Amino acid sequence: MPQFRIAPSILSANFAKLGEEVDNVLASGADIVHFDVMDNHYVPNLTIGPLVCEALRKHGVTAPIDVHLMVKPVDRIVPDFAKAGATYITFHPEASEHIDRTIGLIREAGCKPGLVFNPATPLDVLEYTLDKIDMVLLMSVNPGFGGQKFIPYVLDKARRVRQMIDSRGLDVSLEIDGGVGPANILEVAQAGVDTFVAGSAVFGKRNEADPNRYDSIIGQMRAELAKA
Questions:
Q1: 51 conformational bin, left if phi > 0, alpha if psi -120 to 50, beta if neither
Q2: Could you tell me if 214 and 12 are in contact, meaning their C-beta atoms sit under 8 angstroms apart?
Q3: How crowded is the C-beta side of 103, counted as CA atoms within 13 Å?
Q4: b/e per residue, 14-26, with b = 16+ CB within 10 A?
């Protein structure tokens, strides 16, 4: 069975209690902290920066932090997130003037680079970069806001990327972000995805018995993944 990882997006967490929220979701069985960075330029929203990432590390978060840069330009902010404690740094190819250089910059900063593809963005650049990255993130909604519905044709893209990874014998994570929950996570996994970003699907479903826990929703997702 593949190694499946669940990556709650803190965009849907209670920011007034962010450290506690991240502690609780990790204690409930999550694997990765997904960190959405929006600049009100590349996408029409403004969220969080390196100081928040650094604050989570200082708070004691040791889990991988998966920083998804929805910013343009990319290169200027990479060293700041590396210094702040990012594990993965993923970016959109159309937001970089020199994709190969940005990948190298992330690697040199000590982080794992990845590329992000919007629903209608072609996968062409993977032909030249797949062996240089650690993660491919497929957006199954258009970036900028949480709580959107899953776009089904992204599953075809997932199958293509999985075929590319496997045919080259690479150890590259395939992540999906947008509208993923217990109702469709099995179908997504069967398309070749191994890492699942879920924001409102997780943070909007606290345990009834203990509102500080998310075991039940993460357990539902794990139960579906066990069928894969």
A1: alpha
A2: no
A3: 19
A4: eeeebeebbbbbb
Instruction: From first to last of the 228 residues of the chain, give the pLDDT tens digit.
Output: 569 999 999 999 999 999 999 999 999 999 999 999 999 999 999 999 999 999 999 999 999 999 999 999 999 999 999 999 999 999 999 999 999 999 999 999 999 999 999 999 999 999 999 999 999 999 999 987 777 889 999 999 999 999 999 999 999 999 999 999 999 999 999 999 999 999 999 998 888 778 889 999 999 999 999 999
What amino acid positions are annotated as catalytic residues?
Answer: 36, 177
Query: Are 70 and 37 a contacting pair, CB within 8 Å?
Result: yes
Looking up tokens 């690697």, which residue turns up?
A: 107
Written out in words, the top-level CATH class of the domain with range 5-225 is alpha beta
Residues 6 or more apart in contact with residue 186 via CB below 8 angstroms: 224, 225, 227, 228
Closest CA to 90 of 14, 203, 197, 201: 197
CA pair distance 90, 80, nearest whole angstrom: 14
* Residue with tokens 């997504």, as numbered in its chain: 188
Per-domain residue ranges of the chain: 5-225
CA distance 83 to 107: 13
